[in-house]
Task: structure prediction
Amino acid sequence: MNYIKEFSIILLFSFVGEILNKIIPLPIPASIYGIVLLFTALETKLIKLRDIEKTGQFLIDIMPVMFIPAAVGLLESWGIVKSSILEYLTVMAVSTVLVMAVSGIVTQLIIKKSGEKNNENN
Amino acid sequence: MKTIEFLENSVFFGVMISFLSYGLGVFLKKKTGLAIINPLLMAVIIVTAFLAVTKIDYQKYYAGAKYISYLLTPATVSLAIPLHRQFELLKKNIRAILCGIISGAVTSFLCVLAMAVIFKFSHKEYVTFLPKSITTAIGMGVSEELGGYVAITAAIIIITGIFGNIIGETVFKIFHITEPVAKGIALGTSSHAIGTAKAMELGETEGAMSSLSIVICGLFTVIGSMIFAKFI
Result:
């Protein structure tokens, strides 16, 4: 019975996300509305964590597998990218590494700085 | 020949082989302890190789495998759970987190702009790449809105995700990123949900911060890419 309740709640938030995606003219997918709404519901205690926790954890655990079908399908788009594949891959690789490094370094730097400040205050 | 035909029409084959390959990837990684063995990449290679050897058409595989992708929205919605559990940590570091995500998003725009100039991209190619670091559904929407090649945007987003998932730990080593919050933000900002899968592997804090980055970076990119689209 628990799993029925848990999965129903998660599907309900996915469905509401789908409705919002339909009526709001922005390129924001159902899942983003859903995650924001479910998070709000958890914070306001409208939904209790234990009412969704097990099923949610199961879905999160198997999430990487959900990307496999689309990733295998990449070969299908070979025809449209092959003429500029090297340039495209260069842009992809360089920017991914830089974005990862910059966002990580900036976050870490500010955390460390504010940590030092807190220590001084104490 | 009969067997192949059966596999092509099977309801469970596509999902099963996806899970088995991923499981095998996880097993190999544990067994060898090599960071270079990435379960997701292994799974993609195994499935692709299997389809090539048995000459099973991708569309036939996808007809069954798509049922696993159906759960992607409920799974993404469930990322609210780690986010909720880590909310205290999030509030404590809110300034660092927001600065990290926004600096990452701006880096992505500048990087794409700079390389579009170097490679002499057309406007259409340039806007195809602008939303490359964000989750597929938002990215495809942005690309369509700006008049890019939507199919290429989708492909680049997925490749970006897998690439980020693979190189994450190496980048953290090179740039001495040790703070779990920073690792999560870096993965989510650079490689969306597929990077978040890696962040979840690293730990709950990393996973929660990465989930948050998907949302904030995604929304920020919707606005930012409209401004940056005017530059080429």
The CA atoms of residues 108 and 121 of chain A lie 20 Å apart. The radius of gyration of chain A is 21 Å. The longest helix of chain A spans residues 85-121.
